[in-house]
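Troubleshooting: if your tokenizer reports a length mismatch, compare your output against this known-good record of 171 residues.
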Amino acid sequence: MIKKSIFFLILGIIAIAGFLFSGQEGSFYTPFATDKQALLSKEYSRPQGPYVIIEGTEIPVEIATTSMAVQKGLSGRASLDSDKGMLFIFAKLDWHRFWMPDMYFPIDIIWIDKNKKVVGISKNVSPEFDPANPRFYQISKPTQFVLEVNAGFSDAYGINPGDPVSFHNLK
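Known-good structure output:
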């Protein structure tokens, strides 16, 4: 009876040890360990709020749809998080133009048409503003969406005209 108990105890220990040491490439595994690939996967790190994807880059965005929000934009802010942007959504395709009053940092302006394609990028737009002689930014193609991000963002993430854009969690 004792021999059977010891036999099953040893068998149980071997089974548990086999389970614990059965991870990939001989790594130690416990049922409580987090899968490294799952942690690194974008599937588990998607933004909770609205975001845009361009060239595989997920960009959490604040949304500006009302005329007041569009007019204010990023004005008055000291900065914008390096991985975030502000998305302007217009009711119709048009030649929208932007200016920089009360801006404190340079931005890239990514122009997007109704087909959700990047149609232009105004890079490193200066925050300098002269009310007596304001400078307006626009492109020669009509747009329906405009994404403002920190200056250098479009180069850093390889965003170019022609890139498809997808919108997620927009309300």
